[in-house]
Amino acid sequence: MRTTERTAREGKRATRRRPGAERLLEAASELFYREGIGAVGVDTISERAGVSKRTLYNRFGGKDELVAEYLRRRDERWRVYLQGVRERVVEPREKLLAVFGAYGEWLVGEGFRGCAFANAAAEIPDPDHPARVVAREHKEGVRKYLAALAKEAGLNEPEPLAERLLILLEGATATATMRGSGEPLVVARSVALELMDDRSH
C-alpha cells in the first residue's frame, strides 16, 4: 500500500475512535457476531449504541465499511492475543503448536459462533466488498504467521507447511462450531505435530 493511501486510512480510523464511533463499533461487533451481518441493520446498531444514524454515516460512510471496521478490530485483538500466547512459550516448535490452543481459547466458549472472518465471507458474496478484503487479509496474515513460526522452528518447506496448517485450523474451527466443542482443535493439534515431524531435519 502506498504511503498516501495508508495515511488516509489511518486518518479515517482515527476519526472512528471518537466516543460515538466507538459505541457504534462495539454495538455492531456484538450484533454482527451474534446475529449475523445480514440480519442486523443500521437502525438496530444506532439504537443499541445510543447514537444517531447520521453519526454512523458520518464516521463510517455506511454499513459496508462498518462491517469492515468490525473485522479489522477483531484482527487487531487477535494479533495482540496471539502475541501474548507466543511470548509465554519458549521452544520454537511449541510456539507453532500453541496457535491451535490459542484458537481453542479464543474462539470456543459462551456465545461461540465460529470464526467471524469465515462467517463474514460466507454471508457476503462480493469478493471486492471491503469486509471480504479484510477477511482475506486476516487469513493471509495467519498463514504468514504460521510460516514464520515454521521457519523459526527449522522445519523444511515452511510455506507449504503453513498452508496445510492453516487449512487444518480452518477445518477444525468449522467442526468445533458445529459441535460446540473445542475437541476438534485438540485433534488438529495432534495432526499438526505429525506434519511437523515429517518436516523436521
Task: Throw out a few tags for this protein.
201 residues; mainly alpha; Arc Repressor Mutant, subunit A; Tetracycline Repressor, domain 2; 2 domains; 78% helix; 0% strand; elongated
CATH superfamily of the largest domain: Tetracycline Repressor, domain 2
Gross morphology is elongated
Q: What would the average pLDDT be, to the nearest integer?
A: 88
For the record, the CATH class of the largest domain is Mainly Alpha
Describe what is shown at a glance.
With 201 residues, the chain is mainly α. It is 78% helix and 0% strand.
SSE blueprint:
Elements: H1 3-16, H2 19-35, H3 42-49, H4 53-60, H5 63-87, H6 92-107, H7 116-123, H8 130-152, H9 158-179, H10 183-198
Helix pairs in contact: 2-3, 2-5, 5-6, 5-8, 6-8, 6-10, 7-8, 8-9, 9-10
Report on this structure:
This protein is mostly helical and 201 residues long. The chain folds into 2 domains: 1-61, Arc Repressor Mutant, subunit A (Orthogonal Bundle), CATH 1.10.10; 69-201, Tetracycline Repressor, domain 2 (Orthogonal Bundle). 78% of the residues lie in helices and 0% in strands. It has 10 helices and no strands. The protein has helices at residues 3-16, 19-35, 42-49, 53-60, 63-87, 92-107, 116-123, 130-152, 158-179, 183-198. α2 (19-35) packs across α5 (63-87) and α5 runs parallel beside α8. The longest helix is centred in the middle third of the chain and has 25 residues, at 63-87. It is elongated and about 60 Å long. The relative contact order is 0.10. The mean pLDDT is 88.
